[in-house]
Design brief:
Blueprint (H helix, E strand, L loop, with lengths): L12 H34 L4 H29 L1 H20 L4 H29 L2 H33 L1 H22 L12 H24 L4 H23 L13 H18 L1 H12 L4 H12 L5 H12 L1 H20 L7 H26 L8 H32 L7 H12 L3 H7 L5 H34 L3 H8 L1
Helix pairs in contact: 1-2, 1-4, 1-5, 1-6, 1-10, 2-3, 2-4, 2-7, 2-15, 3-4, 3-6, 4-15, 5-6, 5-11, 5-12, 5-14, 7-8, 7-15, 9-13, 9-14, 9-15, 9-18, 10-11, 11-14, 12-13, 12-14, 13-14, 13-18, 15-16, 15-18, 16-17
């Protein structure tokens, strides 16, 4: 008998088209994610806007995307995964057209929010459809391929975005994702079968409460970087987050068909699976936004050079996720994921030692080391996410995991940006405290010229050094947090190594 192929080969042609459609949609999402990071420095030079308004180019997409994934998963189970996937891909295409035609930054941010809504519908329904269509070892390899596709988008996205930015302008960077979702819509309309899950009462209160809680938290973190912790609006947003979080927990405990089954979080293996996207976000995903902003906007490197460095960071995603699914059969998923996070943490620490002089010759090998460490758990976590619940609840499982991943990315990005702004602020001088805080927020978002206008006593070289020192400290903090996640992951999954290895076999 011939050895089993690493890549899944569905037996039926409609399954192949279904898999291709979902993978195309998944490929569009990292392009939309990285597009904001590439476009912000350009928008900062062409539009007069606050750091918060510029941050919303990225965060509007991440906020709506993350906050609505749980709701989208539940709606897909109830009303049909094919229907929700077609609505999501079509809506994303239309929203992308609105982004490209936006006359002002406000309209651009609103259109980015609509992109996030449509992306949530497409990803949650598409993931649930794949879980419904494949079982056993084939399902694990299908999800490993999905993770590899997402990784390919992350690997090629910054370079493609940089090339499109130079050739056709920032609007073309966003348009690339719309072309992919249009193709995904056409394929799904032809081949994707309809499927449903459990149809309980729709948890409207839970959907609304969770979305508002996440919005309040993201807004608090964005304001924190610009105005500081003592600002009234920051404290009010944090208080609203706590109140909305408490209300959401009470709602879910009382609802007969809750949006989020809170009892799952008492299971160590389930907690471990949800910790994986948080860890990879801290050690990898935030770098895809933070580093281009610093290299492009603060250090003045070219878009092509920055794209090549980001390609080095993401290149391991092209191969290692698929290999990790194979290695897990012998090594164990828990051990392999822990090892990967420790490798990532060590790479972040080494990168911090060269942050004050970001030379591509020194950064490229270290960025590849960080990417390789992240790629090991990246190839395992998608399959594990739908293995902890019955297939009838695949939409909910996909929604929970996707929410933790995307909401974690949005929250982590806002938190990291706020921390970087505060680290920069501590080293600035020559202006009022309010101007220093605002200048720190501008530097954290890659807007050096706007920061220089607020700090006439500091030269461009001084601002570069201040930002670089803050970045070095930030990388050390991220290295520590990633290492802590690795230890917690080991503790949560060590008793379930055999079970998890079966899931990824």
């Amino acid at each position: 008998m011939a050895p089993d192929s690493t890549f899944p080969v569905p037996a039926q042609t409609p399954q192949r088209w279904t898999l291709l459609a979902v993978c195309l949609a998944a490929l569009a999402l990292p392009l939309s994610f990285t597009a904001g990071a590439v476009a912000v420095p350009v928008l900062a030079r062409s539009a007069v806007a606050s750091p918060t308004a510029l941050a919303w180019v990225t965060n509007a997409f991440m906020l709506t995307f993350g906050s609505l994934l749980l709701a989208a998963g539940g709606l897909a189970d109830r009303h049909g995964r094919r229907r929700m996937f077609l609505l999501g891909t079509a809506g994303f295409t239309v929203a992308t057209a609105a982004v490209c035609l936006a006359p002002t930054l406000l309209w651009l941010d609103l259109a980015r929010g609509l992109q996030g809504v449509a992306a949530a519908a497409a990803l949650a329904s598409g993931t649930a459809a794949l879980a419904q269509g494949w079982q056993g070892p084939r399902r694990a390899r299908v999800f490993a391929l999905l993770g590899t596709t997402f990784g390919a988008g992350l690997a090629l996205g910054p370079l493609l975005a940089g090339l499109l930015l130079q050739a056709l302008g920032w609007r073309s960077v966003f348009a690339a994702g719309g072309v992919l979702t249009l193709a995904a819509f056409a394929l799904a309309a032809r081949a994707l079968p309809e499927s449903r899950g459990e149809r309980g009462r729709l948890d409207i209160a839970g959907m609304l409460g969770f979305s508002l809680m996440l919005a309040a938290l993201t807004l608090a973190l964005l304001w924190l970087g610009e105005y500081g912790l003592h600002a009234g609006r920051v404290q009010l947003a944090l208080l609203a987050t706590l109140l909305l979080g408490g209300a959401f927990v009470c709602t879910e405990r009382l609802h007969p068909s809750p949006l989020l089954d809170l009892s799952l979080f008492w299971q160590p293996a389930f907690l471990g699976v949800q910790l994986l996207p948080v860890a990879t976000c801290l050690g990898y995903v935030v770098l895809l936004v933070v580093l281009p902003l610093q290299l492009l906007g603060v250090h003045g490197q070219s878009t092509t050079l920055v794209g090549l460095q980001m390609l080095a960071l993401s290149a391991p995603m092209l191969m290692l996720p698929m290999l990790a699914a194979r290695w897990a059969e012998r090594v164990g998923s828990a051990r392999l994921c822990t090892l990967g996070l420790l490798v990532c943490a060590s790479g972040l620490y080494l990168l911090s030692r060269h942050a004050t002089h970001p030379s591509p010759s020194q950064w490229v090998p270290l960025l590849m080391w960080v990417g390789a460490g992240t790629a090991l758990p990246w190839g395992l976590m998608d399959g594990l996410s739908v293995s902890v619940v019955p297939v009838q609840r695949a939409g909910m499982a996909a929604g929970i995991f996707g929410t933790v991943r995307v909401a974690g990315e949005g929250i982590a990005l806002a938190a990291v940006t706020a921390l970087l702004a505060m680290l920069v602020d501590q080293q600035l001088h020559g202006a009022s405290p309010a101007s220093l805080a605002r200048a720190g927020a501008y530097l954290a978002s890659g807007s050096r010229d706007q920061a220089a206008a607020l700090l006439p006593a500091m030269s461009a070289e001084q601002l570069q050094q201040v930002s670089a020192k803050a970045l070095a400290t930030l990388l050390r903090v991220l290295a520590l947090l990633t290492a802590v996640c690795a230890v917690l992951l080991h503790l949560l999954l060590r008793k379930r190594k055999g079970t998890l290895a079966e899931h990824t076999a």
